[in-house]
Amino acid sequence: MAEKSYEEEHPAKAFGWAARDQSGVLSPFKFSRRSPGEKDVRLKVLFCGICHTDLHMAKNEWGISTYPLVPGHEIVGQVTGVGSKVEKFRVGDKVGVAGMIGSCRSCDSCSNNLENYCSEVIITYGAKDQDGTITYGGYSDIMVVDEHFVVHIPDNLSLDAAAPLLCAGITVYSPLRFYGLDKPGMHVGVVGLGGLGHVGVKFAKAMGVKVTVISTSPNKKQEALEHLGADSFLVSRDQDQMQAAMGTMDGVIDTVSAMHPILPLISLLKTQGKLVLVGAPEKPLELPVFPLLMGRKIVGGSCIGGMKETQEMIDFAAKNNITADIEVISMDYVNTAMERLLKTDVRYRFVIDIGNTMKS
Hints:
Helix content is 24%, strand content 25%. Helix 4 crosses helix 5 and helix 4 packs across helix 10. The longest helix is centred in the C-terminal third of the chain and has 13 residues. The chain is of the alpha/beta class. The strands form 4 sheets. Strands 3, 4, 5, 8, 9, 16 and 17 form a 7-stranded mixed sheet that branches. The chain has a 6-stranded parallel sheet with strand order 12-11-10-13-14-15. Strands 1-2 form a two-stranded antiparallel ribbon. The protein is built from 12 helices and 17 strands.
């Protein structure tokens, strides 16, 4: 009997860890990936970062989760199979999968390399795929993804420390580029020194930007200045410090996902400055309008990036030796890691060693 082609293979048996209800507790889960198509890449997952979104989704804090839910969208691995019409990848390539695995490919957003803003975007987990199956994320041993939504990982990037760039990295890189906050000599504030904030500092510094870290935690000052290379540090609860810094920044990237006042951040901006929100608090923030009028200031948002920009970000990271600061964990430690993440007890990103510790 002739050996089946890659596209003729039945759905691949997969193994991962899934949340079954709003408790958010993850446990082992066996499932099937969709049958691979002619443009699909199959990869063995080696590492997967833990994003705060995974915690929100596991607990259904945004009200959009479906169970069982296999989280994970900071995925790196190695190609183990390619469809007959795949052009960009070969077996053995080191690759990454980020926050989306599909889109309509024909709307204005898709036509402008902004698939992340497509109204029919298919997120990496907890969504309906094109064939009607449910998407499952990277807390699993294998993935099947259309090649358009896969990126090359350059050889000089360590796979574990590169994984968080696929969400945290692109989430801060994209607004720096789009809002024009990437020009040498500009002054940008980064609010929150967590998974997003610490790579935001690294990218901005590599772009030649003066960076001020803005944090509620005074004990992070030495870390921000000496380890991450920030130029200055502001304690957001210190009114004297905040007052002294008023009107000094071209832009502020706000990475905080908890409820917090944004008026003090708007006050830091120069005339025509830009406050960009990339965190996702569970409840609406209060937006004072008058301070925006008196200075033609902008409050904007940004959500990951398109595939072209995601590859650009990875290549920029490789060129400038940018990776995330990580704590590598085993798969069976994931629930403890989630509890620690809730307490911000991580410096700065958990990464699961899927390849060596996922036991079926």
